[in-house]
């Protein structure tokens, strides 16, 4: 498994950074709430973002990763909204949701490019 970065565009790198930000936040929240149900869900989400990043970096079916990443990420935004009393939005949540919105937009743009 070799890292293939030569074919990764600037737009794709933005998506990787956004996925890393939301993945790190989910990892942190998952560890903090483990072994509760939300903790496990957060760890699952963190693993999903990490898996997506690795798949893109090793050039494993990138288009499929982009395609699956849209509902995976958008679904988390919807679930967050349904499960939280907003406003107010805590700063960490705002950073997470911003990263997720950026990621969804990037993934859609990457799908339209290919």
What does this structure look like?
The chain has 114 residues and is an all-alpha fold. 79% of the residues lie in helices and 0% in strands.
Produce the secondary structure layout.
Blueprint: H1 10-33, H2 37-57, H3 62-83, H4 91-113
Keywords:
114 residues, mainly alpha, 4 helices, 0% strand
Low-confidence regions: none
Class from secondary-structure proportions:
mainly alpha
- Helix-strand sequence: HHHH
Total count of helical runs of at least 4 residues: 4
Largest sheet: none
> First CA to last CA: what distance?
23 Å
Beta percentage is: under 5%
Helix content: over 70%
Q: How many domains would you count in the coordinates?
A: 1
Oligomer: single chain
Average pLDDT level: 96
- Strand tally, please? 0
Shape: globular
Task: Give Rg in angstroms.
Answer: 14 Å
Q: Can you summarize this structure?
A:
By secondary structure, the chain is mostly helical.
């Amino acid at each position: 498994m070799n890292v293939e970065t030569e074919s990764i565009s600037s737009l794709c790198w933005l998506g990787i950074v956004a996925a890393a930000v939301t993945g790190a936040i989910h990892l942190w929240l998952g560890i903090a709430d483990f072994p509760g149900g939300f903790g496990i869900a957060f760890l699952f989400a963190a693993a999903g973002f990490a898996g997506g990043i690795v798949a893109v970096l090793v050039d494993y079916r990138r288009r499929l990763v982009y395609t699956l990443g849209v509902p995976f990420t958008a679904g988390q935004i919807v679930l967050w909204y349904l499960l939280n009393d907003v406003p107010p939005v805590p700063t960490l949540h705002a950073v997470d949701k911003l990263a997720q919105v950026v990621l969804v937009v990037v993934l859609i743009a990457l799908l339209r490019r290919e």
